[in-house]
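User: I'm preparing a small set of examples for a lab meeting where we compare how different chains pack in three dimensions. I only have the primary sequence for this one, and I'd like the structure in token form so I can line it up with the others. Please keep the answer compact; I'll paste it straight into my notes.
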Amino acid sequence: MMQTAQDIWRELIRLSTEIDKALDEVRARCVEAASLDVEHKQAAATAYLSADGSTVREREAQATLAVGHLALRAKVAAALEKSATEALRSRRQQISAIQSMLAAQRAEAEFSRTGPQFTP
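Assistant: Understood. Below is the structure token output for the 120-residue chain.
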């Protein structure tokens, strides 16, 4: 548990650094997910247009089979993007918790210094 102001500042600086890293990770994951999504959709369209099926469902099935590996990569990239975003939110919540703790300590210190402000 953090005891001193110096400990609290160290933790805030650490979390701030973690937020910077998490932001970089989210940016990278967003770019990767978008690129893979576009790659998958383009490949699916190309595969559909070149499919030999006599019905729409047959052509869609052939296209899906042809680009399934790209669909998987795109879904994994989207999941990693979501995971990185959640990690960023978690770091922000940790800072918020420290801020709440500091506000409570400040209120306690003010109360200790001045006592209750009760006037009948």
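A couple of notes for your slides: The CA atoms of residues 47 and 106 lie 64 Å apart. The chain has two helices and no strands.

User: Perfect, thanks.
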